[in-house]
Design a protein that fits this description.
Pfam families: Pkinase (PF00069). It is an enzyme of class 2 (transferase). By secondary structure, this protein is of the alpha+beta class. Helices cover 38% and strands 18% of the residues. The protein has a 6-stranded antiparallel β-sheet with strand order 1-2-3-4-6-5, covered by helices on one side. A 3-stranded antiparallel β-sheet has the order 7-9-10. Bound molecules: adenosine-5'-triphosphate (ATP). Adenosine-5'-triphosphate binds next to strand 2, strand 3, strand 4 and strand 6.
Length: 315
């Protein structure tokens, strides 16, 4: 097997799986990272995402996690759809897998576009995803803004299971800023509280990014502590209602992500949190205004005709 970094698939390229003979037409590159490249592909007139692995072992461990999740989510459309190898015309082989294409934006872009009102619901949905993963026996490990895609109405999907680790083992892959070891807040053992800590840092990164990054520059490694993070939880109006929740997550106080999600939901419905509303575009407003004007005009014409103020014909 070769690494995918050498492989560039141009739009229009057709990939045929060596084992299952599935044919996938490359539309475009969706993204790339340390573990491989992700392409948008078309198969049987539907769109999917194809990850071509950088390293067969890393890709296999992602596949194992996705398979284990698929066996639990029998009632929903599976995320992992096919696993195969691609043989390039020069004879090199590249492992790949096909997953559901998530039409969405990375978390911070979604909130910038749709507004911070969506944060409580998106946060709740993300906690649900983490709880589901933990209940399947894994922690996500590398939770960060880029690995959370948000689709319509705040639906959340985690992508990049390269850091997912069986509970009890040492977290395989993480990003320093989100790592509780970096903040002297606990070990790198894969347990639910590890992801909840990263989730809390993710919330801070969304709304207090500048102050958070400032801390990483000014504090000496031995002086970093969760208390510094807790101080950031009360500054921004979007975070304020959740300040107590965030402090508990940073302190490792939730027994599970499910418990954390339930506590988050109580805050959402306990008042003080604005419900999410879809932003209407300018075009939407203009169309609405135009329709109202037309209805008013039509009503006026009908009234004038009925009052004999307008001729009804040429007879
Ligand atoms: N199922 C999907 N649907 C839509 N876009 C996706 C999907 N999976 C991945 N992407 C896009 O591709 C990007 C790279 O994917 P991914 O994070 O899995 O690669 P990686 O090599 O593991 O990255 P990293 O270096 O962060 O570990 C993602 O940030 C996302 O924008």
């Amino acid at each position: 097997m070769k690494t995918s970094s050498e492989l560039r698939l141009a739009p229009g390229t057709v990939i045929t799986g060596k084992w299952n003979r599935g044919r996938y037409r490359v539309e475009r590159l969706l993204g790339e990272g340390a573990n491989g490249k992700v392409y948008l592909v078309e198969h049987s007139r539907r769109l999917y995402a194809m990850k071509v692995g950088g390293d067969a072992v890393d890709l296999q461990s992602e596949i194992n996690v996705l398979r284990s999740l698929a066996s639990r989510r029998r009632r929903t459309e599976p995320f992992l759809l096919a696993v195969d190898d691609y043989v390039h015309r020069d004879g090199k082989e590249y492992p790949f897998y096909i997953m559901r294409y998530v039409r969405g934006s990375v978390l911070h872009e979604y909130l910038q576009r749709e507004g911070a009102d969506w944060f409580p619901l998106v946060g709740y949905n993300l906690l649900g995803k983490l709880a589901e993963l933990h209940e399947a026996g894994f922690v996500f490990g590398d939770l960060k803004r880029e690995n959370v895609l948000v689709g319509s109405y705040g639906r959340v999907e985690l992508v990049d299971y390269g850091g997912a680790t069986a509970i009890g083992k040492s977290v395989r892959q993480f990003t320093e800023l989100y790592d509780r070891g970096y903040w002297n807040a606990g070990s790198r053992t894969a347990e639910g509280t590890y992801d909840l800590f990263s989730f809390a840092v993710l919330c801070l990164h969304l709304f207090e990014g500048r102050r958070l990054l400032q801390l990483t520059k000014t504090l000496l490694p031995q002086n970093r502590s969760p208390a510094d993070l807790i101080r950031l939880t009360t500054g921004h109006p979007a975070l304020k209602p959740f300040a107590g929740w965030l402090a508990r997550a940073l302190g490792g106080e939730f027994a599970s992500a499910r418990e954390g999600a339930a506590a988050w939901q109580r805050i959402m419905y306990g008042g003080g949190v604005k419900p999410a509303r879809r932003r209407r575009s300018t075009a939407g407003w203009a169309a609405g205004l135009f329709a109202c004007t037309m209805i008013a005009l039509a009503a006026a014409i009908v009234w004038m005709i009925s009052e004999g103020m307008l001729p009804t014909g040429l007879s």
